[in-house]
Amino acid sequence: MLHRCRRGGMPRLFPHGPARGDRALPPGDDEGSALPLAPLLPFYGLRLARLHVGTNGLLSGQDFPRETQYVDDDLPTDFPAIAPFLADLDTSGGRGQIYYRQDGASDVLSRAAGYIRAGFPSAAFAPTHAVVATWEDVAAYEAVSRDAEPSRQRNTFQAVLAYDHADAYALFLYPDDGIQFFGTRPKESYHIQLELPARVGFSRGETDPGRENLHYSVASSEQGLKNLYQSSNVLTPGVWVFHIGSASPLENIVPAGAGRQLLGGALPTAPESVSRHATAEHDYPDGAFAIFSYDENEEDNEEFPFVEPTEVVAEDYDELGISLHTDINLQDRPSSLETDEDLLELVSVESPTYRQREDVQPYPDGGAVPAETDVHLGYPEGEVVLQSYPDSPLPFPRGRHIVGVDEDVSFNTDVFTYSAASQETCEQHHGLCSPHAFCTDYATGFCCHCQTKFYGNGRHCLPEGAAHRLNGKVSGNLLVGRTPVHFADVDLHAYVVGNDGRAYTAISRIPQLAARALMPLTPIGGLFGWLFALEKPGYENGFSITGAEFTHSLEATFYPGKETVHITQTAEGLGLENYLSLRTHIQGRVPYIPENFTVHIAPYKELYYYSSSAVTSMSHREYSLLFGHHNQTLSYRLHQNVTFQDCPHARARRTMPATQQLSVERVFALYNEEEQVLRYAVTNQIGSAEGDSDTAIVNPCYDGTHVCDTTARCQPGAGLQYSCECTAGYRGDGQDCVDIDECAEGESRCGPFSVCLNSLGSYRCECQHGYHLADDRHTCVLAAPPPDPCAAGRHSCAAADQARCIPRGGGAFSCECLPGYTGDGHNCSDVNECTQDRCHPAATCLNTPGSFSCQCRPGYDGDGFQCTPANLQRLTPCEHERLYSQPDPGHHIPVCDDQGNYQPLQCHSSTGFCWCVDEAGQEIAGTRTPPGSTPPRCGEPEPTARPQTMCERWRQSLLDHYGGRPREDQYVPQCDAAGSFSPLQCHGNSGFCWCVDEHGREIHGTRSEPGTAPPCLPSVAPPTVQPSPRPDVSPPAVGTFLLYAQGHQIGYLPLNGTRLQKEAAKTLLALHGSIVVGIDYDCRGKMVYWTDVAGRTVNRASLEPGAEPETVINSGLMSPEGLVVDHLRRAMFWTDSGLDKIERANLDGSQRRALFSTDLVNPRAITVDPIRGNLYWTDWNREAPKIETSTVEGANRRILVNEDIGLPNGLTFDPFSKLLCWADAGTKKLECTFPDGTGRHVVQNNLNYPFSIVSYANHFYHTDWRRDGVIAVNKDTGSLTEEYLPEQRSHLYGITAVYPYCPGARK
């Protein structure tokens, strides 16, 4: 029985702390420590001899790299990783502790084994060792700020690895209120308010060159992280179990309950998504966890069947005082469901659906090549609903009851010859019948007939008296009045009470204009009333004739306007839980119905005419439009026909009347604007075409006035007497029925190697991995292993001397190039190792296909990888480096002392920089001095310590931020011996220098070019002439290209059509000391504009050679982020997330004014439609994110989008399609809408962490903070076509497209 799991106590963590002998990780921001393991720990196909415990919420089989190389990135990592909460964490200053130990205590092992058995009941596993790592009250890393108090939010979580010599399992535990923050702010975000969600999952690491880096993502969004403590995959909220290693290497991590559907307490797989490979991701939406939690913002278009009910039909009808019962009210009616709401909300329960495999590709010889994909783990084989019915006849062997019928058939032997070999019989085809039908052989073939207490056409049978659910999608192209309206795949849910003929229908998310116009068209929901109408004696409803596969077509012509609309409803069969699935398409024109008008439809009767494979009906219906005292009666003419496939062999035995009358005693239609739901409700009976006499006595079973439960059959007796009998799968007195748990009570017929899953009124059997259901649908038989495409040669990998085919099980495979080749495995090309400096400098390299060789030059000895001069004494490292240094002008050649050791002081011969080195020749952090200043004291004792000055504190802070080793292009302030700012400051080794005042602030006009240091002595005045044109401004080529902001530089990425010309990418403008965020291009003035959050300025520069950047706005800014240029009005607009403002100014900075300074929390992206004069911007306020619009003058401000958005970072207006599109780092979607908010649709729903976006031709290009690159997305297909990752790894901010012309300009 499917039920909501009551939330019990959260998991208590495994015992930890000093009392258990735990070690404690040193406090800090990026600490790590190794824990030796004995025995070795299986992980994927690896055997780990030690585990490294890290501050940042993860464990690894090797030492961690610098945190900047992984802490902000998505999975996979380059190293083996077990991540219960990977984020930038900090335990310094008493902010939490991290404990870890290896343990063999029985209480720990037995508790771990209990959790593992709950998730893997078939696994006979008894752990011998465990590793317990606990992050207790740890904090998120925060940059020091004088403006804000440090956060008091703390996280507590635990990872337990339980293993023996052959298998290993990981347990992640999250106590109640243990996760108080869900992400951390990147260190390089500066003033930009961004929070990257934590990642939970596993990564195998790049252990073999060229091998695919396997990984498994558990959660990477805020909602997925919330589900960590709200949900579980072992039915204990906050506990998650995974199989992570085995003696037989795992294809990937296996979550507890893998492959089982959520029926009757089956186990969720993961709180968010499963990434089995970097190339194949299968999302499991949070809606799949309705057993524990529900988030209406998550996608629900995947495999898991149940989503929390969202549409409540009863409330609307109750508010109107409507009762759909003839004589009694629902409140007075006994029911196994406690309230009307419980009954009617079932209209919106999602149908269980299962996708067909679409990953099999055609093969030239007519066979099939299995797609290069993953094996679906768990119980993938056949699934079927079984019902337990004590009164049902025992099934025929192989699952069907078969009856033979002798018929008197007259035929001419010259015309017809009976052939037992060609005739279809029950023995051969009984599998086409319903599980609750018997098969009958006739002279000309076989037919299926429903068993007693069931009804239908034999191929589909439903229990009498049971309630039924229908689900589907509705699409339409309508002309409402004169306004076109389009909608696609909106949800339809229906709920039918079979024992009294009530049918409720709800269509959600339909555009308001269309929904109001469709209110009179009750046949949309009336179809379900006819299908499951209450049957009078001797008459049959629609489902008894058509079953669950048919096509319903109708044409309605409205009067007096003669608007005509066509509707097609296609039923696609019964799914799990007997849900009927159908698709509806609406095409044509309907009259406009104004707002606030309601539609009233009087009860009606209509005749249905029945033939062998079709049902037709023609009628004329009236409806009234009501508003206040206004009452207008209109009508439409209706033609309907239902086509289906009947069984021709039993037509002669059918006794159903050729004409039947459908009586609709109650009919209602209404639209709820707040919920955006169109609802229909009807009460139906099917009976004689002549109708019933008014004086005839009607048994309550036939007019729906009985008091039987909604899951009970009404059995008529004499006169007005009747009895109630619970339908199959329920027990009770008929007036109150409860579900039978066939699995728990041992009444199921599931055989060995199967799992019984109970649900309302039924149960089903699923087979374990490696088995499939036999024809009886409850016996599991061993599945024949699928053929190995690699061994059979049925694969698409490159030649065997260039690539290898790797079988993945289940008929799947992957390709990988052999060492020495590069490519995707399908196409491999030789790697020229000689271009990679693999050989020693004194050796010659020879490239060969797939390999290379090295040979020392004459006069040297060695293997080519190491060469030493012949007959030369052994060199010290310093002497060796001097001897073999490349003659590169920019390369430093070390200085050695008389003993051949590195001199403590090293100076660059060409740049003039000096620094201290240790005995190994490695630079000592913080000792580098610029040219012209006093060299550092190397090896000399430090003077007596004194308090650090502001310059020294800033210097040390940046050194810590850079990890102690700043890159040569990163700025570190220079201080003199007294700790004051040196008058001359230079940016790394770039050669750019400037003068500063006593507070370290740059003196305007003193910045110089490389090679000419400015005079910064107090007695010398600063230069009065402007510096010469900057050599770091590199003009772009002609054509369309992208400009992107990357911190202290603006990058150039040309396009060839829409393809990224990565090889031609370069730095367009180096802006040392700046942090460029927003960027746009003025196509008329040929200038690029940008915001600088470090300098708190708005700037511009011409793209002409040698152009000098110019500051346009330099005051009144705090955190300028998004920026857009209106080339027609010669104006620019920007957002300031620090001041919560949107401002406007001319392109030269004049006529500046604030457009908006209220109702803004975190404004970020901004874009403009110059032609129509409209402005658009995003506000990613976490409490109420939105996209707003106004005119460019600030008039007519309004909210455009505020539903189903999370962190709308990027925004762009496409001047060609006239669509407004945005990239959302919260929902991970790329969406578009028309400027008026209509036509919203999703282009891509699996982005990483987009920041900015721009549109060009048929592509979008966005910057991504997970990938630190530019990603291209096809507008038509939504596919991610390619990406560009700059060599210098850091976060990318704004992006814009530069055209050779102005798009959309007036002519």
TrEMBL record:
Residues 926-937 have a biased composition (Low complexity). InterPro entries: 6-blade_b-propeller_TolB-like, cEGF, Cueball_EGF_LRP_Nidogen, EGF, EGF-like_Ca-bd_dom, EGF-type_Asp/Asn_hydroxyl_site, EGF_Ca-bd_CS, G2_nidogen/fibulin_G2F. The keyword Disulfide bond applies. GO terms for molecular function: calcium ion binding; Wnt receptor activity; Wnt-protein binding. PANTHER family: NIDOGEN 2, VITELLOGENIN RECEPTOR-LIKE PROTEIN-RELATED-RELATED. It comes from Alligator mississippiensis (American alligator). Keywords: Basement membrane, Calcium, Cell adhesion, Disulfide bond, EGF-like domain, Extracellular matrix, Glycoprotein, Repeat, Secreted, Signal. Gene3D superfamilies: Green fluorescent protein, Laminin, Thyroglobulin type-1, TolB, C-terminal domain. Residues 1-31, 926-946 are annotated as: Disordered. GO terms for biological process: canonical Wnt signaling pathway; cell-matrix adhesion. Disulfide bonds join C907-C914, C986-C993. The keyword Transport does not apply. This is Nidogen-1. Residues 84-247 form the NIDO domain. LDL-receptor class B repeats lie at residues 1086-1129, 1130-1172, 1173-1217. It comes from the Eukaryota. The gene is NID1. CDD domains: EGF_CA, nidG2, TY. Residues 875-938, 948-1016 form the Thyroglobulin type-1 domain.
